[in-house]
């Protein structure tokens, strides 16, 4: 592995990697971040958020492995039946079919009575579904927002009614269940209207957070990351790339600013995290300590709009892109709006 890494620049020897591995493997290898402090490798426990082994995390990992070996996690009755906790796997309400998620929520005669109520958003549906995911996908495609909210609450109440019948021998009528669900949805939407009114009144205060230029002779570099998952990890990579850019441009008086509060607090505080994110934080702290006139500050999203837009655009790029002076129209429009704040 060491032969594939340039010890001086601490980067992958791209030509060598591409010569040894196929194109897909080379792309994956070269995308692996390298430690920038050139310190020794260390083992981390990936099943713990901080990378440290604990008996608790090992227990949950063992449970997860066993659960995956059993099969479909949603069919909990099959597991209970296998462990002889229940006598049979039949639906406790209709006693005629095997109990699973789609049966309880849709195919059971008791569930059909609920969906057949006149006020139900699905009272004219006659489709038979074999999987709950297909049912939910159909709901999302065919219902409007209010109807989808109503259907979601009815689904919850059907499941709650099943549990109430099993454990308390109490069974609510379909009409009472539907009316209760619709009433809760109505209350929810009314509360959202009130919250929107309050938010509109607070919006001028929120918008008061604007991008501000640094004091002379400092430069300011705003960073952000767009991601599908692993939010904090991507924010760490964005900050690390920003630091590398400052080194490449030989900037010695810099204010780094971003809206990832957890990352900013971790870098400015004490890091005791040995996970992938923790190792990145250590790299960032290492570079920051070597620059006496560098600082890292948190700003709210409204004060980081240009960087946020650039990050979103970056999700559609296949390789790194750099703009000097000019840039995408979406970013230029934001900077022009922020220009009065710099006077």
When the domains are counted, the total is 2
* Uncertain stretches of 5 or more adjacent residues: 70-74
Q: Considering DSSP H and I runs of 4 or more, what fraction of the residues is helical?
A: 40-55%
The helix/strand series, from N terminus to C terminus, equals EEHHHHHHHHHEHEHHEHH
How many distinct helices? Answer: 14
Ends distance: 53 Å
Strand content: 5-15%
Mean pLDDT: 82
Q: Which geometry do the CA atoms define? A: extended
Biggest beta sheet summary: 3 strands, parallel
Secondary-structure class = mainly alpha
Strand order, largest beta sheet: 3-4-5
Secondary structure tally: strands: 5
Rg of Cα set: 28 Å
GO molecular function, one term: nucleic acid binding
Protein name: RNase H type-1 domain-containing protein
Pfam families: RVT_3 (PF13456)
Organism: Juglans regia (English walnut)
Write up what this structure looks like.
- This protein has 2 domains: 76-206, no CATH class; 219-342, Nucleotidyltransferase, domain 5 (2-Layer Sandwich).
- It has helices spanning 14-20, 23-30, 55-70, 76-82, 101-107, 109-115, 132-142, 145-168, 174-206, 231-248, 261-268, 276-289, 305-314, 329-338, and strands at residues 5-6, 11-12, 219-223, 254-258, 294-298.
- The longest helix is centred in the middle third of the chain and has 33 residues, at 174-206.
- The strands form 2 sheets. Strands 3-4-5 form a 3-stranded parallel β-sheet. Strands 1-2 form a two-stranded antiparallel sheet.
- Helices cover 52% and strands 6% of the residues.
- It is mainly alpha-helical and 343 residues long.
- It is built from 14 helices and 5 strands.
């Amino acid at each position: 592995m060491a032969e594939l890494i340039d010890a001086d620049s601490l980067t992958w020897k791209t030509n060598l990697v591409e010569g040894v591995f196929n194109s897909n493997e080379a792309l994956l290898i070269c995308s692996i971040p390298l430690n920038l402090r050139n310190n020794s490798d260390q083992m981390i426990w990936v099943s713990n958020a901080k990378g440290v082994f604990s008996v608790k995390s090992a227990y949950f990992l063992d449970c997860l492995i066993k659960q995956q070996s059993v099969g479909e996690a949603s069919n909990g009755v099959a597991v209970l039946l296998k462990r002889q906790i229940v006598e049979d796997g039949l639906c406790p309400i209709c006693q005629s079919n095997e109990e699973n998620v789609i049966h309880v929520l849709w195919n059971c005669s008791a569930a059909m009575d609920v969906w057949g109520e006149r006020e139900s958003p699905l009272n004219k549906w006659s489709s038979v579904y074999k999987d709950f995911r297909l049912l939910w996908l159909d709901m999302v495609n065919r219902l409007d927002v209010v109807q989808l909210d109503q259907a979601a609450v009815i689904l919850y109440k059907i499941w709650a009614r099943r549990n109430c019948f099993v454990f308390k021998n109490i069974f609510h009528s379909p009409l009472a269940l539907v009316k209760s669900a619709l009433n809760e949805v109505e209350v929810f939407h009314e509360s959202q209207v009130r919250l929107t009114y309050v938010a509109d009144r607070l919006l001028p205060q929120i918008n008061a957070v604007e991008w501000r230029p640094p004091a002379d002779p400092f430069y300011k570099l705003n960073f952000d990351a767009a991601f599908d998952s692993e939010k904090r990890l991507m924010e760490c990579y964005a900050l690390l790339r920003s630091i590398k850019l400052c080194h490449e441009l030989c900037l010695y008086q810099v204010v780094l600013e971003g809206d990832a509060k957890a990352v900013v607090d971790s870098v400015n505080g004490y890091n005791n995290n040995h996970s992938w994110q923790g190792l990145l934080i250590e790299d960032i702290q290492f570079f920051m300590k070597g620059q006496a006139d560098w600082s890292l500050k948190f700003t709210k999203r409204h004060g980081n709009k240009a960087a946020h837009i650039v990050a979103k655009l970056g999700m559609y790029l296949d390789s790194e892109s750099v703009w000097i002076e000019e840039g995408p129209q979406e970013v230029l429009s934001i900077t022009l709006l922020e220009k009065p704040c710099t006077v």
